[in-house]
Each structure stands twice: as C-alpha cells, then as structure tokens.
Request: fold
Amino acid sequence: MDKIKRIEKYLYDFFSNRFESLNELYNSTYRDRRDGIYKLKHGSSLMDFLISIHGNIAEQYYFINLIPHKFATPEALLYSLDFFKKYLNDNQKYLDINTNGEETSYLVYEIQKIKNELTQMIDYTKRIYDYEDTVIPYQELRYKLITHNIPDFIAILKSILASVSYAITKTQEGFFHSNVHLILKLLGFEIISEEITNKGRIDAVIRFSDKIYIIEFKFNENDDLSSNALQQIKDKEYAQKFTIEKKEIYGIGISFGKETKNINGFKVEQLN
Reply:
C-alpha cells in the first residue's frame, strides 16, 4: 500500500472511531446551547468552534477516498490539514479561559480532547507523508531535515560523504553536488537540481509538505564559502518562485573544501 492510500485509510479509520460520539456531542450541545455552552465565557465563540470542527470533518475529511475526490493532490490535502490545525490552535484561547481545575465544564474537557486528538492526527498524517517510507538507518538523516535540525543533518551528510573512497573523490564542485543529490534522491526526498528561475539556476530544491529548502553549493580550496552561497540565494531572490505555495522557505548555503574533500561549512536562514 502506497503512502497516499495509507493516509486515506488512517484518516478514515480515525474518524470512523470518533465521528459518532462527536456528532452526539455536537447535536446535544447545539440543542441545549442556551442553557449550556452559552453560559461559559465566550460561549458563542466556543459553539462556533465546535460547529466548525464538526463541519470540517463531515464536509472535508471523513471520506474513504480523498485524493483526487476531495483534494486534487496530496499537497492540497496536507495544506488543508495545516490550515485546520492553525484554526484549532488559534481557538485554544476559548478553552483555556474556561479551564478551572475540577470546576471545568465537561463540555470544555470534551472539546479539548477532540482538539488534542485532531492536532495529533494532523501531525501523524504529515509523518506518514514525509518520512515513514524511509529505510533505516537513513531515516535519521531524512528526519533531521524534516524537523529542521540542520546542524545534525549536515553532520550526518558529512559522515556519508566521508565514506567515499579518497581515490575516487574528485576535487570539483559538481562531484560533491551530484553526490549530495544522489544521496537525497535515494532517501526519497523530492529534490530537483538546477531549478530554473527568472534570475538564474538554483543548485537544489527540496520540498516537504510544509517546507521548501533552497540549497546553493560553493567549492573552494580551504575557505568556508557558505555565507556567499546563502547570500546568492537572497541576492537572486530564489525564494520568490515558491512563495505562492504558502510554505516555510529556507535557504541553505553549503561549502565544500578541496583539502577536506567534504563539507567545510554551512549557513541557513528562513527566507519568508
């Protein structure tokens, strides 16, 4: 079963086990809203929150087939789930203001439970899409980049590059560039080399469900040119091409040294 089918099955199973109880809570809360939820602080906002949760699930996500029936692409589904998670977190304030230890209303407890389970579900769905397919022991390298742990990602990548025999290592930027591309491609990254923009060619672009990494490589005898590489990304406005995707965009400058035959520096910066 491919990861898209696993995501669809996971979501359908998740909601199948919860929607009936959510529906009962929604109906009873709405029916008795004037004597119940409306008496809580910001009760009308809490009711709207519950209505929106119920509606999103019923109209968007509780289906056997989601792609392409409800969403054109997996990325569209993940973008929708990300937006739903942001909405859930933005409305946490209405639950917090009504949380008062043992005096907390059961409605607040139930809505909080639903909200927590939904945010966990969204995080796990992204986990399936982004890195569940990765073969151990390389899972760690993929995980580091997905979780934006760039220093550890670079350290692992350096270790892999160090395993290349000294006798076959060429002291050219293209050699290291192609090696990095091959390593990441074999690990299942969606990586594109020599991505063309209106101002030049990007050495590499890596896409995830919620992030895009723009990578520029530099090669030198001994100097760390990672700052120059990052500056090139900014000067040529490489991020501009991807802003329409509404994802976090990061630039990574990576420097290779002729003497070390490996990465000798890196710089990273969020570009949007």
In short: DSSP finds ten helices and five strands in the chain. The chain has two domains: 3-131, 139-270.
